[in-house]
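Form 12-C: Joint structure prediction
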Amino acid sequence: MKYKSQKVAYWFFALSMLLFGLQIIYGFIMGFAHAGFDGLHSAIPFNTARAVHTNLLVVWLLSGFMGAAYYIIPEEAQRELVSVKLAYVQLISLAVVGVIAIVGYHFNYWEGRKFLEIPRPLDYLVVVNVLLFLGIILTTLFKGKRRTTTALVLSMGLLFAALLYLPGMLPFDSQVKDSFFRWWVVHLWVEGVWELIMGGILSFLLIKLTGVDREVIEKWLYVIVGLTFLSGVLGTGHHYYYIGVNKIWLIVGGIFSALEPLAFLAMALFAVNMYRKGEKKHPNKLALYWTLGAAIVSFIGAGLLGFAHTLPQTNLYTHGTLVTAMHGHLAFWGAYAMIVLAIISYSLPNMTGRKLYESTRGRMAFWMSNIGMIGMTVAFGVAGVVQVYLERKLKMEFMEVQKEIEVHFMVLIICATLFLLGITLYMIDFYKHGRPTDEALEASSN
Amino acid sequence: MLSKKQARAFFLGGTVVTFLIFIGLTIYSFSKAQDQSNDGNITEAVVRGKQIWEENNCMGCHTILGEGAYYAPELTKVIERRGEGYIKAVLMTPVDWAPNGRKMVAYGFSQEEAEDVIAFFNWIGDIDLNGFDTVVSPLAKDEN
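Section 2 - Result
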C-alpha cells in the first residue's frame, strides 16, 4: 500500500465477505429444497431464496470490484483518492440498498425479472450510488500523474457496466421485449464489460506478482478484451434463440458464441505465460494461486462449459434446464469470484501489514473451495443431462423427472459443504489479518 | 508481432463494429415484418397478467420461454397442456399447491387476477419460438 486512501478498499472487501457468506446459506436452502427437504417453504419459499442467492452474488461481486478499483486506481494514477469521505458514503449507501432489497424479497417486494429483481425505486438509488462511485474513480484518474492502460480498462469496464444497467429499467408490455433487453444487462455484463473489469484486475495483479514489463502485459490486455467484445457482443444472440425473436439470432448467436471461449483461452494462456516469464518471485503465493486459478477456471467454466450448450441444436434441449445452473456456477466462480478473492489476497497483507500469505489455512481454503465447486458443477451437470434426456427426449413429466434426480442434489450438498469449509477458512484468514493501518504504509513496498 | 497501438486499434475497432451490427440486428428483428411475438394481440389483460407474474416473482421457480428458475415446470403452452380450469384452481387456491410433493406458494388470487394471468399464458402460447415449444410441451396441440 502506497496511499492512505487505499484503505477504503478493506471495508468494501469486508462487505463482500459478509454478503458472500449469506449467499452460500441461501444456496444451501435451495439445494435442500431440490433434494426434497423444503422445510422452510412457509418462511422462505424457493423463489425468495433464489432471488436472494443470485442478487447477493451480484452485490458481493460489485462490492469486490469497487474495492478493487479503490485499491488499484490510486496506485495506478499515483495519487490519493479525491475523497475518502465520499467513498465511505458510497459504501454505506451500497450496503443500505443491498439490505433493503434482500429484506424486501422476503415480503414480496421485488420485480420478478431473473437477476434484476431489485424493485424500481431502489434501481434509482443504485444509479445514484454507482454515479458517485464512478465520479470518485474517474476524477482520481483524471487528476492522477499517469493514466495506465490497466486503469483505463478497469474504469471503462465499470463505466460501461453502469451504462448497461439502464436498458434493464425500460418498461415493456411484451414479455419478449422484456427478456430481450434484460439480456442487454445480464449478458453484456457478465460476458462483456465485467470481463474488462476482470482483465484490468488480472493485469494489475500480474504486473505486481510476476514483475513482467507493464508494456507487454498491457498489450495483451487489449488483445484479450478485444476478443471478448468481438465475440461477446453478438454472442448475446445465444439467449435469443427461443424467446420469440427472429431466426437470424440462431446463426449470429451460434457463430459468435462459438468464438467466446477464445477470449477466455487467451486470458488463461496469457496469465500462465506471464507467470512463466516472470523473474520476480513475489512472496504472496496465495494471491498468485487465486490469480492463475481465476484465469484457468474461468476458461473451463465460462469458456468450455458455456460452449457446451450455446450451439442452437444443443440449446434447443438444454434451454431452461439445470444445465444452465451447471455452467453458471463454475463460470461465476472462476471468472469473478476468484478474481475478487485474488485481489483481496493480494491487497490485504499490504493494507494491514500482516503478511499471512504462506499459511496452510490459506492453501486449504483455495483447494477445498475449488474442489467443492468442481464437485457441485459435476452434480448439476449430471442432474441437468438426465433432466434433458428424460424430460425432453423421453417426454416424461417435469415432476417425475425431478424425483429421479433428487439424489444428485444430495451429492451437490456434500460438495457444497466442502466448498463452504474452504470459504470459511478464507474468511478466517481475512479476519486474522485485522484492520487496515497507516503503519502498513511504509512497511510494504509492493 | 502486434504493437500496443495495433492492439488498441483491434480492441476499439472490434467493439465499435460488433456493437453497430448488434444494434442493427436488434432494430431488424423488432421490425413489424419480422415480428414473431404476436405483439398485436397484447391486451390490457395480458399486461395485467404480466404484472402479476412479475410482482410475485413466478420466474423464481418456473420458467417461461425457457427463462427463469428450474424448480417448477415450464409454463409455455401450459393452458393447452392442463386447461384453463386447472390453472385457475392452482392460482386461486388458499392452501399450498403441492401436486407432486413440491410446494407452490398459495397465492389465493381473485377470479379477475387468475383470468389476467391466464390471458398472459394464452398470449405466450401463440408466440413462434423457433421450435422450442414442441420440445418442452409435447402435449401442445399446435405443433408450430
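Section 3 - Comments
The CA atoms of residues 131 and 144 of chain B lie 7 Å apart. Helices of chain B lie at 4-29, 44-55, 78-82, 84-92, 111-125, 132-136.
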